[in-house]
Amino acid sequence: MMLVKARAILSAALLFKFDGNAFLFHYSATAVSTSNLLVKYFINSLGFSKEEAISSSAKVTRNISFKNADLALNFLKQTGFNDTNLKILVSKSPDLLFYDVERTLKPKLQCLSELGLSGPDLVKLLLRDWTLVNRGLHSHIKPLLNRLRNVLGSDENVVKVIKKTSWLISHNNHGTMEANLNLLRSFGCSNDKIKNTVIRNTHLLKISTKKLEKMLHRVEKEVGVSPDSARFLHIVVVLTCCNQKNVETKLGIFKSFGWSDSDTLTMLQKLPCCVGLSEAKIRTALTFLMKELGYESIYIASRPSLLAYSLEKRLIPRYEIWKLVNEKYLIKSRQEFYTVMTWSESKFLEKYVLPVKAELPDLYDLYIKRIGK
After folding, report:
1. What are the two backbone dihedrals, phi and then psi, of residue 303, each rounded to the nearest 5 degrees?
2. Are the C-beta atoms of 303 and 337 separated by less than 8 Å?
3. What is the pLDDT of residue 98?
4. Distance of CA 339 to the CA centre of its chain
5. S-S: 259 plus which of 5, 71, 144, 263, CB 3.0-4.6 Å?
6. Residue 373's pLDDT is what?
């Protein structure tokens, strides 16, 4: 009896093993066949090299329908994609070819087209962030566009912002956006100020609300700029975009040159983007302006654009002309250093360079060469 049972168990095991292996073989053969067909499709329909086709086919996660892929390619071409665009898009996300055109691709792209994003603009948007196609039309895309429209005031402004910030549509945290907008309003920032700030920089819509609140308090209390000021949100944006540790390091450089807290606050109030300059740029500018030219920190803090100008193409070559012309009294109307530095190139040439060309031809040629004219 036990022998019979053992034979039965062994037979069942052999049968299971055979059936299992047969299934695995069949599945494997089918997968290989489909993969080969997909590779051939990418080569024949999109002009991929064999290596490109193999790489892209490995990224496909959706059910494959070559009929659907043909429909998707035709639709994308009608939308404005050329052959080069399509290769780039499919290389990034080959799954897009297997979305249902009528139910998924067409409604979402049509929604963006009706907003004002069409033709080359829509192509650029998808090439930068194709993941927006994964977002629900009614659960995500349309509610987001409505929120942006309420903040920015018009479809034109919404389009302007989306074109600059492609990730905005696919960004999946509406709650943060809403909380940040409410926080800005609670600080007394008007809708117009919020609108103008967001148009220039959408960063405020996605940073954590806790971080934004901390920075709002800091700008108001430590930097000493009221939310009523036109520069308030500008300073907030600059400081939230910068790594806090890097900001502290850069402020430390100013202190090493003898700047007081009052000096740095004056600079931040007038031109907050100075903390976005590289450490090397800050050091070289301060060395030139303070150690070589002898200007005090309060002078530079009150005229912080001096720090942002190119040392090689503006400050040094203009200073040399300005100093020599003034020393030799070659021009009757003598201008202050900062004023001369802020002039446009054409105005500086007209006022300080061309009038002395005859007397100082070598200096003129050197200046033109130095600024790359």
Report:
1. -135, 60
2. no
3. 92
4. 33
5. 263
6. 62
